[in-house]
Design a protein that fits this description.
By secondary structure, this protein is mainly β. It has a single domain, classed as SOS response associated peptidase-like (hypothetical protein yedk fold), CATH 3.90.1680.10. The protein has 3 helices and 12 strands, in the order βββββαββββββααβ. The strands form 2 sheets. Strands 2-1-7-8-12 form a 5-stranded antiparallel β-sheet, with no helix packed on it. It has a 5-stranded mixed beta barrel with strand order 3-4-10-9-6. The longest helix is centred in the C-terminal third of the chain and has 5 residues. The two termini are about 25 Å apart. The mean pLDDT is about 90.
């Protein structure tokens, strides 16, 4: 599972998938939640594209009132990689709407309800990395409104993550970025097969992360 993330290391010229060619102003964010803006990399008509989109996929067929964006109440910020073809919200995106969700860490909670401890999960040196994702574009019937959104793929937790949760986001190695984004690579399942457990690390952080509106480096402050 992945329901909170950080994008707090300046990606310009460093990290996964053509960060050196980034075309958007980067925002340092330590506590990104579903329904907020998260950064993705994708291919559009063969060209690399980076942008911020809504985290929580809203499919193109979502209904909305005239002049308003759709209110999508289903939990589509994560998508189980084993069930993608069974879910109407995701299966139409598999061929040509795959993306990389660009972050440098995510959070998971352990413990009893009301006493849960947040943990920060990251790679060595806190370097940026990419999660396998899917994106979609909703457009109003009159073409006046548009909403681009994404979801993060998950899989059964590996040996390391099992101490925190039964699921984990699909962290792609750099060697598979191009294959995942290539719409001519029809066998998307093959891209996700045989992934080794990533060299992730974790530590418990303070309860500050549990506060409404928490943001900034205090979010990743180690617990005493």
């Amino acid at each position: 599972m992945c329901g909170r993330a950080s994008d707090a290391i300046d990606p310009t010229g460093y990290g996964p998938y053509e960060f050196s060619q980034i075309r958007i102003p980067w925002r340092q964010l330590y506590n990104i939640a579903p329904s907020q803006q998260i950064r993705i990399g994708r291919r559009v008509e063969g060209a690399s594209d980076h942008r911020y989109v809504r985290w929580g996929l809203v499919p193109f067929f979502a209904k909305a009132e005239l002049g308003a964006l759709p209110v999508w109440k289903f939990p589509t910020f994560n998508a189980r990689s084993e069930e993608l073809e069974q879910k109407p919200s995701f299966r139409h995106t598999l061929a040509k709407q795959r993306c990389l969700v660009l972050i440098n860490g995510f959070y998971e909670w352990t413990g009893e309800k009301g006493k849960k401890t947040p943990h920060y999960v990251f790679l060595p040196d806190h370097r940026p990395f990419a999660l396998a994702g899917l994106w979609d574009r909703w457009t109003s019937k009159d073409g006046a409104l548009e909403l681009v959104s994404c979801t993060v793929l998950t899989r059964a937790a590996g040996a390391f993550m099992q101490r925190l949760h039964t699921r984990e986001p699909v962290l792609l190695p750099e060697a598979r970025y191009d294959a995942w984004l290539d719409p001519t690579h029809a066998n998307w399942r093959l891209v996700l097969e045989g992934l080794n457990d990533p060299p992730i690390q974790e530590y418990a952080v303070t309860s500050y992360l549990n506060h409404r509106g928490a943001e900034g480096p205090e979010c990743i402050e180690p617990a005493a």
